[in-house]
């Protein structure tokens, strides 16, 4: 009987420690219930999506300045969004019927969104010389 109680505790301890050092996943310290954690994660994903949109707008402007069609950014973004939806949706399914699936899927979306923002920044908003970037490093 005790084994059944220890295993979930060890799993959640591992889960917390494995993501604790990942700066792409901020903590939801005040969340005490699954609903509160899901709501907190949703708010964080919304903020990350807003930040990504800001960087995408700037990237489109940079592409136009080079006399290229900004639709290349839109196509790239659509492909990335399809990947994020598929991958994080699969994690939701993978973690079954338990409430951990909400956190696993939410952490996936948040991490991928933050990583995408950094990718957009590096690809379109920085320079190879000492010219300052168009926008600040989003990872800081």
Structure, described:
The protein is mainly α. The chain has a domain at 36-122: Substrate Binding Domain Of Dnak, Chain:A, Domain 2 (Up-down Bundle), CATH 1.20.1270. Helix content is 71%, strand content 0%. Helix 2 runs parallel beside helix 4 and helix 3 runs antiparallel to helix 4. The longest helix has 32 residues, at 34-65. It is elongated and about 50 Å long. The model is unreliable at 1-21 (pLDDT under 50).
Q: What would the keywords be for this entry?
A:
140 residues, 71% helix, mainly alpha, Substrate Binding Domain Of Dnak, Chain:A, Domain 2, 4 helices, disordered N terminus
CATH class of one domain: Mainly Alpha
Average pLDDT across residues? 85
How many alpha or pi helices? 4
Count of beta strands = 0
Distance between the termini: 46 Å
| Helical coverage, percent range | over 70%
Q: Give Rg in angstroms.
A: 18 Å
**What is the 3D form?**
elongated
CATH architecture term of one domain: Up-down Bundle
* Structure classification: mainly alpha
Strand content: under 5%
Give the ordered list of helices and strands. Answer: HHHH
What CATH calls the topology of one domain is: Substrate Binding Domain Of Dnak, Chain:A, Domain 2
């Amino acid at each position: 009987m005790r084994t059944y109680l220890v295993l979930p505790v060890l799993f959640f301890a591992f889960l917390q420690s494995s993501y604790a050092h990942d700066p792409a996943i901020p903590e939801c310290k005040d969340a005490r219930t699954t609903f509160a954690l899901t709501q907190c994660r949703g708010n964080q994903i919304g903020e990350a999506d807003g930040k990504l949109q800001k960087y995408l707008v700037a990237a489109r402007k940079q592409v136009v300045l080079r006399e290229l069609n900004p639709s290349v950014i839109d196509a790239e973004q659509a492909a990335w969004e399809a990947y994020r939806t598929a991958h994080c949706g699969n994690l939701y399914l993978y973690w079954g019927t338990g409430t951990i699936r909400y956190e696993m899927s939410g952490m996936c979306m948040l991490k991928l969104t933050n990583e995408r923002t950094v990718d957009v920044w590096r690809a379109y908003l920085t320079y190879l010389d000492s010219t300052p970037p168009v926008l600040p490093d989003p990872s800081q």
